[in-house]
Amino acid sequence: MKIATFNVNGIKTRLPHLLEWLRREQPDVACLQELKSLDEGFPEAAIREAGYGAIWKGQRSWNGVAILARGADPVEVRRELPGDPGDDHSRYLEAAVDGIVVACLYLPNGNPQPGPKFDYKLAWFERLLRHAATLVDCGHPVVMAGDYNVVPTDFDIYNPKSWRKDALLQPETRACYERLLAQGWTDSLRHLHPEEAVYTFWDYFRQHWEHNSGLRIDHLLLNPQLAPALKAAGVDRWVRGLEKASDHAPTWIDLDLKKLPKAARARRST
Questions:
Q1: Residue 223 maps to which CATH number?
Q2: For a disulfide at 249, which of 44, 70, 128, 240, Cβ 3.0-4.6 Å?
């Protein structure tokens, strides 16, 4: 099973890119972020014609998340991150696909910092930590995929010096990510490529794409029930090279579900 995450940076603008990527790479599950569209503007017909069922939660002009499943309809579990009923940002979706719990998230950027946006980022991260703790040992195989807006270490960015004041690199941000991994989650891309400079995001300034001046901020975390199935992980860089592309490239993992622990395999069938 191939599971991917892709911050599309506007699904209306990038729909041709999304459809080409789905046709060429055929992920079994795709988690999308930054739809930047209301629910009624989601291109359900085009995505179904491409062979995918979908659930989504949109928002005008920014945010928005979706989960696509090839040849199936994701079974929705929840449409929001628990812990703050007043939070109206569309940043979290959770569904079951083929017996796997898939969480799609778009963690707040947090800039400028310090300030209310950074405070919101950390508060949202605390909510994620509490909810993730219920998922990591739930007995089901779980993947939490999305744009985390976290550069975990200096190795995950082309040049940390010019980004030191950015919310993505702040010690508080990185500490939250470390606490998340400490619950028992596996950072799939880094786990399989511990010594490789792998990037998933290149901003639009100063020819960062052309110079491969990137950041790794899109992550797929696996709980202990799913981690044994991990066999490959990578980034579909060719998508970032398309004309008028998103500033993110799709990031993916390949799973051998036959290697799931016996109890997790049994859970998938219930």
A1: 3.60.10.10
A2: 240
Residue 129 sits at the vertex; the CA angle it makes with 127 and 133, to the nearest 5 degrees, is 120
* pTM for this entry: 0.97
Cα separation, 75 vs 78, whole angstroms: 9
The token pair that represents 164 in the structure block: 């030191």
Structure tokens at 114: 């310090």
Which residues are the active-site residues?
Answer: 106, 147
Side-chain half-sphere CA neighbours of 85 within 13 A:
0
Please name which of 78, 52, 50, 63 lies closest in space to residue 11, comparing C-alpha atoms. Answer: 63
Give the pLDDT confidence of 109-156 residue by residue, as tens digits. 999 999 999 999 999 999 999 999 999 999 999 999 999 999 999 999
User: Is residue 200 a contact partner of residue 248, using CB atoms and an 8 Å limit?
Assistant: yes
Asked if residue 269 has pLDDT above 70, the reply is no
Summarize the confidence of residues 158-175 as an average pLDDT: 97
Q: Token pair of 243, please?
A: 């004309």
* Placement of tokens 């930047």 in the chain: 36
**Which residue pairs from 108-115 have beta carbons closer than 8 angstroms and sit at least 24 positions apart in sequence?**
108/149, 109/149, 109/167, 109/168, 110/149, 110/167, 110/168, 110/170, 110/173, 111/166, 111/167, 111/168, 112/167, 113/165, 113/166, 113/167, 113/170
First to last CA, the chain: 18
Strand ranges in 73-174 using DSSP code E only, listed in sequence order: 75-78, 92-97, 100-106, 142-147
Domains identified in the chain, total number: 1
3-state helix, strand, coil in the chain (%, to 5): 35, 25, 40
The whole-angstrom separation of Cα 172 and Cα 161 is: 17
Domain that holds residue 59: 2-268
